[in-house]
Write a structure and sequence with these properties.
Length: about 475
């Protein structure tokens, strides 16, 4: 079954924020957060032994909750093949090494299977016609992968099947949930037909009812671009030049889901079906923690005392203990009436991106997921950044309802002041705009947040096509 909201199909002509409001963000005082310390194991990041994990997984498997999967999937696959283009335009020592690895392992890629015989033959000649093969893979006259969404690029081989991330995400959802499966993708609307057909190809085979929804990043959230002199940038048609306002714009899309639990991960963080066991078990593990936390919220509402809050905080480490004395009865009950998220965090082994930190604001030290752009460029703050031991969440279980199951308006729990400032080039000139608070950064600033360490094998992103040679993406 395919569901789609008509209002998301129409082009929004109005901006959510006026030109003056956006200009104030871009040229006003830059918003910074005050880091106190990185979250570490047993100091903001929870650790569970195997017996506890099994108990929490069992709790989840007995659940009686409606569940949806929310998977941002509008990103282009062009960056996966960037080194191929660079090799064609300007070969150098770096991209030549990458090209050698690509063609030395050419037959191991799922892409290879879908190439016509005459293109495969170009690689078997005594002098392989590398340029023709690359152009066939990338250009419109061939596979056109430089223009495709990443989710439509073939990632994996599984027996006779070739699977892309859309298909794998649906299969993993089916494998995780025994009841009705709801999967929501945010997509590039230009490829909706191809995406739908791709998913239908696998759902026909599994014989299980899957409800798939699509939505698009709303045009009204787009950011207006400015020159340094604060004038508005215009495109060749004389219209205001806009840019998508970052993944924080997807808070609108997330807000429209009605499920009690929402499982979130990125489209490219998917493993070959044969290597997906850890991802499935850890999603259940995080779901079990979410159920346990809900029980604690019930207890706190029944007894909204500082002692009860301290007991709950000792288990879930929501706040620095020194902050708890600021909570009176009214504030404790306010704490109960928030959405919450359980975030699976992996050890940082050199991945770019932000991480989990203790942040002080208005006298309260709580946990946030921080990007480098959110902190002041000072030695003290940067020193804390490099001390971080864990990476951004690789999977999240979100609860957008209160403890009675009534849905929150998630926009009420976003911190609008936590936007990002961006500089890009347009026709050789610097242009400036603001992105909305990141989906798991400022957009969830006022959620109750639980960080949990999970294994690194739950994280297998594909930034370049060569990442598909890593074990999680191989058939064996």
């Amino acid at each position: 079954m395919w569901l789609k909201k008509e209002k998301e199909m129409s082009v929004q002509k109005d901006f959510r924020y006026s030109i003056e409001q956006q200009k104030e963000k871009v040229f006003g005082k830059k918003p910074f957060l005050k880091l106190m310390s990185p979250c570490k194991l047993n100091h903001g990041i929870l650790d569970f032994d195997e017996a506890q994990k099994k108990e929490l997984i069992a709790r989840f498997e007995k659940k009686d909750k409606s569940i949806s999967f929310f998977i941002p999937a509008s990103g282009s696959g062009s960056r996966m093949f960037q080194f191929l283009y660079e090799f064609l335009n300007q070969p150098d020592e770096n991209n030549v090494q990458l090209i050698e690895r690509f063609f030395n392992n050419f037959q191991d890629f799922a892409i290879y299977r879908i190439l016509p015989k005459e293109i495969k033959a170009l690689n078997l000649n005594e002098n392989p016609k590398i340029e023709e093969i690359i152009l066939y893979i990338l250009e419109q006259d061939g596979l056109n992968f430089s223009n495709y969404p990443k989710g439509l690029i073939p990632f994996h081989k599984n027996g006779p099947f070739i699977l892309n991330p859309f298909q794998e995400q649906v299969l993993q959802a089916i494998n995780l949930i025994d009841s009705k499966v709801n999967v929501h993708f945010t997509i590039n609307e230009n490829f909706e037909k191809e995406i739908k057909e791709s998913i239908q190809n696998v759902t026909r085979l599994v014989g299980k009812d899957v409800f798939v929804q699509f939505s698009y990043q709303k045009k009204e959230t787009d950011a207006i671009s400015f020159y340094k002199d604060e004038s508005v940038v215009l495109d060749d048609q004389g219209d205001i030049l806009t840019r998508p306002a970052g993944h924080g714009a997807l808070l609108d899309n997330l807000n429209e889901l009605e499920s009690e639990f929402i499982f979130i991960k990125n489209i490219d963080n998917v493993q070959n079906y044969n290597h997906s066991k850890s991802s499935k078990e850890n999603f259940k593990f995080l779901g079990g923690i979410a159920l346990k936390f809900q029980d604690e919220l019930h207890a706190l509402r029944a007894n909204p005392t500082l002692e009860q809050l301290q007991e709950m905080n000792a288990k879930f480490q929501l706040f620095e203990e020194s902050s708890l004395h600021t909570f009176n009865r009214e504030k404790i009950l306010e704490l109960v009436n928030r959405p919450f998220r359980v975030c699976g965090m992996i050890k940082n082994e050199g991945q770019p991106g932000g991480g989990p930190f203790w942040v002080e604001e208005n006298g309260i030290v709580s946990k946030q997921i921080i990007e480098k752009a959110q902190i002041e460029n000072s030695f003290e703050q940067l020193k804390l950044l490099v001390q971080s031991t864990h990476f951004n969440p690789v999977m999240m279980v979100c609860c957008p309802t209160d403890i009675e199951g009534k849905k929150f308006d998630l926009m009420d729990f976003c911190d609008e002041s936590k936007y990002f400032l961006i500089e890009k080039k347009h026709k050789g000139k610097s242009v400036y705009f603001s992105e909305l608070p990141g989906l798991w950064n400022g957009s969830m600033a006022f959620w109750n947040t639980i960080f949990v360490e999970i294994p690194s094998d739950t994280f297998s992103p594909v930034k370049t096509v060569l990442d598909l040679l890593n074990k999680p993406h191989l058939e064996d």
